[in-house]
Amino acid sequence: MDFSTIFDSIITFFKDFDFAAAWDNIQKVIDVITGLFA
């Protein structure tokens, strides 16, 4: 497995990755954590 193959698979992963949904989940976790310490 050469570097370009690894690079292509990483690019494909990030294209398929749903950043918007992940960010929503991160925001919810941050809200819960800040709520605990508020």
Largest sheet: none
Question: Taking Cα atoms only, what radius of gyration do you get, to the nearest Å?
Answer: 16 Å
> Low-confidence runs (pLDDT<50, min 5 residues)?
none
Structural class: mainly alpha
Proportion in β-strands: under 5%
Q: What is the N-to-C succession of helices and strands?
A: HH
How many DSSP E strands?
A: 0
Helix content: over 70%
**Total number of distinct structural domains:** 1
CA distance, first residue to last residue: 49 Å
Globally, the shape reads: elongated
Count of helix runs: 2
Look at the structure and give the mean pLDDT.
89
What does this structure look like?
With 38 residues, the protein is mainly alpha-helical. 87% of the residues lie in helices and 0% in strands. The protein contains two helices and no strands. It is elongated. The model has no long low-confidence stretch (mean pLDDT 89).
